[in-house]
Amino acid sequence: MRLRDSSELMESLRDRNHHSSVRPIMFSDNVPVDIDLMFEQVKWFDPPVDIKNKVIDSLRKEGYDLVEENPGKRQGTDLRFSKLQQDVVIEAEGNKRPNGDPKKQSQMYTHFLRAVGQLCIRITKYGKKTRYALALPREQYYLTKAKETMAGLRRLKVGVYWVEDDGKVTFEQL
Known about the structure:
The chain is an alpha/beta fold. It has six helices and eight strands. The longest helix has 18 residues, at 105-122. 24% of the residues are buried.
């Protein structure tokens, strides 16, 4: 069997690749890795853009200024607003991946608990006048999780911005 050089192998893989465009392929131990595809598969870790955008629009209508946003980052405050020297710090979670597929329940569970944990970390970072909240889609799974953790969330004075499918946002202080 003849060994092909890397340019020949790249051309062969490009022909068989299910993506029609020329995409960067990395070779590791002679196993091709489609870098773009690999990163497409982990994009669901990013904060949910639709939920965040709906909350941003809603709070701006209430006169809040967006002073901090960390789009696409796993670390840091998702959203921080300010109005009349009162800050609102929000951790957002959604129910869909960026490609529109629904998240698995195990992912929703992990992301919900991560958001609560992130708020716990933030409580010591910002001033005493800061209000803390989750931003979640109003759906049965998250309603149940909020109810199950209500005692703890009340102690932390955490509220929830519920986002409806039609974009309506309502705040509930737990």
